[in-house]
Amino acid sequence: MNWLAKRFQQSKFKRHYFAEIPIDLTRVGEFRGERFPESGPTPWLDRADALEAIDRKLKSGELSETEAELCFKWTTDGYIAVPKLIDQKLLDEVWTAYEAAIDDGTIQVGAESIGPEDIHPGRHLDTHLVLPVVRKIQQHPEIIAITDLLFGRKTWPFQTIMGHKGSSQEPHSDSVHMTTYPKGYMLANWIAFENIHENSGPLEYYPRSHRLVPDLLSSDIGIEAREFKNGSGVYSTRYEPAVRRYIDAMNLKPSYFTAKAGDVFFWHAKLLHGGSKRKDHSLSRKALVCHYFAEGSVTYHDLSGNPSRIHRKGLYAEPTIEWL
Questions:
Q1: Total structural domains within the chain
Q2: pLDDT, tens digit, for every residue of 250-279?
Q3: Structural domain of residue 224, as residue ranges?
Q4: How many angstroms separate the CA atoms of 79 and 238, rounded?
Q5: CB atoms within 10 A of CB 142
Q6: Are the C-beta atoms of residues 294 and 233 closer than 8 Å to each other?
Q7: What is the pTM of this model?
Q8: Whole-number Å distance between alpha carbons of 48 and 249
Q9: Is 72 exposed, middle or buried (0-12, 13-18, 19+ CB in 10 A)?
Q10: SS3 of 165, please?
């Protein structure tokens, strides 16, 4: 590539993305962590001076006392829990629409059953794309205000997962599933539609693991994209055991989010979390999970090596509400 073409690509990159080191995305090939250079900017609450920055912004009036408390908790522990953020009326509206969409076949979910006592249907991916009313929660103004604050940038709402019961998913970090260039510009939340019983398999998380455990992207544990794509089971046989080794070696202890209806739990992309064991399969655990990117980050799926849906119309396409 001659210098003029390179300058054009750099200029094009900078019009759409904020990474300090511009790259030609058309030459990346597989979108995996090792294909991208180490580049800033680092998310402001992940930096070494994050606590000083929070204090400075509080004193200057850029942050309220409540915002500063949220930022401090995020920086130190990697999560925040906000009680009663979503009101009951909206919860009922969205859940009623979800149940109706299942009944009329607009949304189809598998049983994901582990036995006759497991009476609840399974989960549904990207419900907001099929059922627009879900965006009222996914893109709720108070939720987006928090994600904007935590990112230090505007938010791109991305993925949703909706379901009746606990996932029983092994501990993991979201960064291997939904990755950004520069690193760290993804976060998620979990919204309870009902009071969550401790025996229903509540969300499990490991406080401060976002700072204690490395990224563990695919290349770090020797997983090739083609291995994941061909269904060889490397996620469960190599990735999950790698995470478990860190949990055991560092003696990390889980906490559980036994939420009340309307409570929202936000977590850092690197925070280890999963679905705890369901002790009573008759109990539901009605919830919505939402994943968010920071606007202007390059977004991809490290395990598969594919760019995210945000880029499906072209690497430099602007997203629209209809397909976010």
A1: 1
A2: 999 999 999 999 999 999 999 999 999 999
A3: 3-311
A4: 26
A5: 10
A6: no
A7: 0.94
A8: 25
A9: middle
A10: coil
